[in-house]
């Protein structure tokens, strides 16, 4: 699908969509338990439906029900920590989170489990997770010998003391943290190097704790062999033989998806946007509020009532900032657009892991914003954007959405700023924000679907 976006000014109030990250974890954790669980305000997107279907294949009863108020809820009765071996391959679609969670869980099941996904998933490496699962006693490998899906896992993994590289994706760590409590004894997972996107692990720990799971996070000193210096290592201690009991759970609003609308409200002259359902949580992407504040936006957050208001009634240009994206990789496309339309220079750093998402998002944003007239430099781990040099060069044209929901939604905001921007592969928004176009129309976005 192609979307043609005209210059438009957003005004109005929109409820934040439910968090994709929390929905993934809540569905998975509820499936690991035994009692019936009701998940309220879930995100029903292509990615979360992949997790729901995968949990069904492992033996959970997962249903969608609509209540008397027309709200859809997910009702889950889990497999009590004893996943069965799926009778067919698990197809995760485009969902990296689903792939990683289910790959670790496959190590708990008996028999052989095959996991695959779409073309994008089959290009995303899983090297650290496969390596650690093999060390834990499973036979885990890539069918094409490239550490990408299709993956084969033959259990069973056993408890012990293991380490994993934390620099590529936090999803690998979350997957192990949620499967290790089901093992017969205690486990220790040490993180090699810096843990990127740690807030996503914090979300995992938050939901696991609500399910009664004990996981201790601490640090230990490690001696470097070469020069004898010491460094701190992040460690997770996980008792075995635990039982999951999540209970009924309300999914929080999603800051990653909200970032597009909030950025539109901050950038576009005359805009006034209010979003509800955004309460403080472990989501790293709540940093969008801090980012917009640093850029000079008129923004306020009523944390008690979960309401964020942002406007640009004075039609002012924001200013460029420097942002370390180590913990906020999903904000990089949004930040790229923010930088292209702000004065001065914007630097996005520590974002090399963003290259291993649905697509190489650093390359994608540099390529597409350049088509729109932005002066942008792609570095090994980030982007340097000269909003000052781009100011009089930005104009509408056809851009490629890279079949990536976050690329499409970010470029849509650019289209609202300058007009006459057409974006292909726009159907990919269903991955995380199925109602994106409908919600944008409600607040005044002018566009056509082709």
UniProtKB/TrEMBL annotation:
Entry annotation: catalytic residues: 330
Positions with a binding annotation for phosphoenolpyruvate: 20, 96, 124, 171, 361, 406
Catalytic activity annotation: 3-phosphoshikimate + phosphoenolpyruvate = 5-O-(1-carboxyvinyl)-3-phosphoshikimate + phosphate
PROSITE patterns per record: EPSP_SYNTHASE_1, EPSP_SYNTHASE_2
Keyword Cytoplasm appears in the UniProt entry: yes
Keywords linked to the UniProt accession: Amino-acid biosynthesis, Aromatic amino acid biosynthesis, Cytoplasm, Transferase
Gene Ontology CC: cytoplasm
One of the protein's GO biological processes: amino acid biosynthetic process
Pathway, per record: Metabolic intermediate biosynthesis; chorismate biosynthesis; chorismate from D-erythrose 4-phosphate and phosphoenolpyruvate: step 6/7
Binding partners and assembly: Monomer.
Family the entry assigns: Belongs to the EPSP synthase family.
Function per UniProt: Catalyzes the transfer of the enolpyruvyl moiety of phosphoenolpyruvate (PEP) to the 5-hydroxyl of shikimate-3-phosphate (S3P) to produce enolpyruvyl shikimate-3-phosphate and inorganic phosphate.
Protein name: 3-phosphoshikimate 1-carboxyvinyltransferase
Species, as recorded: Methanimicrococcus blatticola
């Amino acid at each position: 699908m192609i979307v043609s976006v005209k210059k438009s000014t957003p005004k109005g109030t929109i409820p934040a969509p439910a968090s994709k990250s929390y929905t993934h974890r809540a569905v998975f954790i509820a499936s690991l338990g035994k009692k019936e669980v009701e998940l309220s305000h879930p995100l029903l997107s292509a990615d979360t439906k992949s997790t729901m279907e995968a949990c069904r294949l492992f033996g959970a009863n997962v249903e969608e029900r609509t209540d008397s108020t027309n709200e859809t809820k997910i009702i889950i009765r889990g497999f009590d920590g004893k996943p069965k071996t799926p009778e067919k391959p698990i197809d995760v679609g485009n969902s990296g989170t689903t792939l990683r969670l289910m790959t670790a869980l496959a190590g708990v099941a008996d028999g052989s489990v095959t996991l695959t996904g779409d073309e994008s998933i089959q290009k995303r490496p899983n090297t650290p997770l496969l390596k650690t699962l093999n060390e834990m006693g499973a036979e885990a490998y890539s069918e094409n010998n490239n550490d990408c899906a299709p993956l084969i896992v033959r259990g069973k993994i056993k408890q012990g003391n293991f380490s994993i590289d934390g620099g590529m994706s936090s999803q690998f760590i979350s997957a192990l943290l949620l499967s290790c409590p089901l093992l017969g004894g205690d486990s220790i997972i040490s993180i090699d190097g810096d843990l990127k996107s740690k807030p996503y692990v914090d979300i995992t720990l938050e939901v696991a704790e609500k399910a009664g799971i004990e996981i201790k996070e601490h640090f230990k000193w490690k001696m470097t062999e070469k020069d004898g210096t010491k460094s701190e290592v992040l460690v997770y201690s996980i008792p075995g033989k635990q039982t999951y009991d999540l209970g009924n759970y309300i999914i929080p609003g999603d800051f990653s998806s909200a970032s597009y609308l909030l950025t539109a409200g901050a950038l576009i002259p005359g805009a006034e946007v209010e979003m509800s359902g955004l309460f403080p949580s472990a989501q790293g992407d709540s940093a969008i509020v801090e980012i917009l504040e640093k850029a000079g936006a008129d923004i306020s957050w009523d944390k008690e009532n979960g309401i964020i208001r942002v406007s640009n009634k004075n039609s002012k240009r924001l200013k460029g900032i420097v942002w370390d994206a180590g913990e906020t990789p999903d904000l990089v496309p949004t930040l790229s657009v923010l930088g292209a339309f702000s004065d001065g220079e914007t630097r996005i750093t520590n974002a090399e892991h963003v290259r291993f998402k649905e697509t190489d998002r650093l390359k994608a944003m540099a390529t597409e914003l350049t088509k729109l007239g932005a002066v942008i430099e792609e570095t090994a781990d980030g982007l340097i954007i000269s909003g000052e040099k781009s100011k009089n060069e930005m104009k509408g044209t056809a851009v490629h959405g890279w079949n990536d929901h976050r690329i499409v939604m970010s470029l849509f905001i650019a289209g609202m700023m300058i007009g006459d921007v057409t974006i292909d592969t726009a159907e990919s928004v269903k991955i995380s924000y199925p109602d994106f176009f409908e919600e944008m129309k409600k607040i005044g976005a002018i566009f056509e679907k082709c």
